[in-house]
Design goal:
595 residues; two-stranded antiparallel ribbon; 3 domains; D-Maltodextrin-Binding Protein, domain 2; five-stranded mixed beta sheet; 8% strand; 23 helices
């Protein structure tokens, strides 16, 4: 009984007071429906307050019926809430007049442009301060280990690797100019971020508007994937830049059909193809688009398109044989063992910021509306009576260039993912999510263009921008803290192990990256012996040994074997960091007679 009073009386009070103030005269059925809405609204609000503000959980009916103190507090809080609602509603209805408007030129004003420039500078600075990190993981060290080689040797190494050579050439040039410095290697990967920000503030702003620019700057500056690859000593950030510029030049071809647009399209496409093979797959879909636009839509010059195809083929021909050999080699043997799902691949493009069904439904609705608007099927406007007028017509369908560009972006995104998954499932797994990072830049651009072309686009762009910042800022903080912590641990590990000299021997596992490349990179002047820790070889008692093992390595058998060979062991590094790996370091030397 007490529970029913607590739940039903405050909403009745609210309804009666509102009826008295606003002179609402309704029939019995409408009053009943109104009361049901009041009961639902007030008690749902109370449940929210109890759970999130007062940390009160458990069966509400049970607590109301069995704890009189709780029931009194519930009624008091509920009556306070209803009184607050009445006062706020009265102020809004009778005393306040509010008008919300947003200037149409918001994204065109000079002050806005200056603000966005400052915003871009801040995001770039957040990336720039991370280039002084000296901690590299296995693939990065594998790349850097070849920088003392000649260009011919790098070409030969790339031919036996699974990636094209362009990025390695750029890294070699950086090495020749600045020497062996971590900040220079990281800085090379950061250059595409700077270029995309500059293009967003100039070229993209002029062509697509400020909304597109702000969204692009946000993604390239602070999204989780971009923050990672803006610093990683690998080719992914450059592949993303080349793919994005190929996409932009596709737009220029559709708009102007100038010779320089075709030339730049070829150059950027080749840059993508010579940087990463999956980037080559992505730009290949752009070539299908211009072919369809020429032969079927009659929007492009057929001769110009055929010449574009021919020039690209001839320029990639020197590497084609090596590419085919790479395909054959990876088909026979490759390290990937599983294939990402289609949904995971789509989520990855946006750094998993749209990982709920609701978010994807909203994105699909936005894309559908975009194409309906840009094909002239759907039209909306507000007439003089301030009523929304919606018309749907299939009589005057037109396909705008921006619609073709949007379709091209979606086509290349889906095409790349489907190709990667199909190849991996039908032939051999070769696809990992980071291989489609280059396609992400197109996904960001398509999303930005779609939002900019919808009705109430200014409000939608601001909502999207705030949402992305809310998702990405905490992730950036996690990355920054992790990188700073691991780099400090790395420096501490290197400082402690500086006692190792060229007469000592480092023992490392021959079965993983730590022994293959990480230790040789950080201890280039020391003697390194790769062994199987499950079977310690006979050691020379004249030498001092240092064992580098993973943090979770079981040392019981290793210590017993060292002891049997007459060596004493001492740990000198506990939970250190080397190349992003957590390690222990032990010193083993001949046991003295006193031990």
């Amino acid at each position: 009984m007490i529970a029913l009073i607590s739940l039903l009386v405050p909403p009745l009070f609210l309804m009666l007071v509102r009826k008295k103030i606003y002179q609402n005269h309704k029939n019995i059925l409408k009053n009943i429906i109104s009361y049901i809405f009041h009961v639902s609204g007030i008690n749902w609000a109370m449940l929210f307050l109890l759970h999130y503000i007062f940390d009160s959980t458990g069966n509400l009916f049970f607590k109301l019926n069995n704890y009189s103190h709780f029931a009194c507090n519930y009624i008091l809080l509920s009556m306070t809430l209803t009184t607050t609602v009445i006062c706020i509603e009265y102020c809004f209805r009778k005393k306040l007049e509010m008008h919300f408007s947003m200037p149409k030129e918001l994204f065109k004003s000079r002050h806005t442009k200056l603000g966005v420039c400052i915003y871009a500078a801040i995001l770039f600075y957040l990336n720039f301060i991370r280039i002084f990190d000296n901690n590299f993981w296995g693939d990065e060290v594998g790349t850097l280990s070849n920088m003392n080689s000649t260009f011919a040797s790098i070409t030969s190494w790339a031919a036996n690797d699974v990636h094209p050579p362009l990025y390695y050439y750029m890294l070699k040039i950086i090495h020749m100019i600045f020497g062996n410095h971590g900040w220079a290697y990281h800085g090379l990967s950061l250059i595409p971020c700077l270029i995309i920000m500059i293009l967003s503030l100039s070229l993209f702003w002029n062509k697509f508007g400020g909304k597109v620019s702000i969204i692009m700057i946000t993604f390239i500056g602070i999204s989780y994937n971009a923050v990672s690859y803006n610093m990683e000593v690998r080719m992914y950030s450059w592949a993303g830049l080349f793919v994005l510029m190929s996409f932009y030049e596709l737009w220029e071809i559709l708009e102007t059909q100038k010779a320089k647009s075709y030339i730049f399209f070829i150059l950027f496409s080749l840059g993508a193809a010579y940087t990463h093979y999956f980037a080559m797959v992505t730009v290949a879909f752009f070539y299908l688009i211009i072919m369809v636009s020429a032969f079927f839509l009659k929007k492009l010059n057929i001769k110009a398109v055929l010449m574009t195809w021919a020039c690209t083929f001839l320029c990639y021909l020197p590497w084609t044989l090596i590419f085919l050999q790479t395909v054959r080699r990876t088909t026979n043997s490759f390290w990937v063992s599983s294939t990402p799902t289609f949904i995971d691949s789509l989520n990855y493009l946006f750094s998993f910021s749209f990982s709920t069904k609701t978010a994807w439904i909203l994105l699909l609705i936005a894309i559908a509306l975009f194409f309906l608007y840009e094909t002239n099927i759907l039209n909306t406007k507000i007439n003089r009576e301030k009523k929304l007028y919606i018309s749907v017509s299939f009589n005057q369908i037109r396909i705008s260039n921006i619609a073709i560009l949007g379709f091209s972006g979606i086509f290349c995104i889906l095409g790349t993912i489907i190709f990667a998954i199909s190849y991996s499932e039908l032939i051999r797994p070769v696809f990992v999510l980071r291989y489609i990072y280059a396609t992400s830049t197109v996904a960001w651009m398509v999303l930005a263009i779609v939002v900019s072309k919808l009705r109430s686009e200014r409000i939608l762009a601001i909502i999207l921008w705030i949402y992305l910042l809310a998702k990405f800022i905490p992730e950036y903080q996690d990355i920054y803290i992790y990188e700073k912590t691991t780099n400090n641990s790395l420096q501490a590990t290197l400082e402690i192990t500086s006692e190792i000299n060229n007469t000592d021997i480092i023992l490392a596992s021959k079965n993983d990256h730590l022994g293959w490349c990480i230790i040789p990179w950080y201890y280039q002047d020391e003697k390194i012996q790769l062994i199987d820790f499950n079977k310690i070889p006979l050691l020379n008692k004249k030498n001092k040994y240092y064992l580098f093992v993973y943090e979770n390595q079981d040392m019981t058998m290793i210590f017993d074997e060292l002891d049997a060979q007459g060596f004493s062991s001492a740990q000198i590094v506990d939970s250190g960091i080397l190349g992003t790996y957590k390690i222990h370091v032990y010193r083993a030397e001949k046991r003295t007679n006193f031990e």
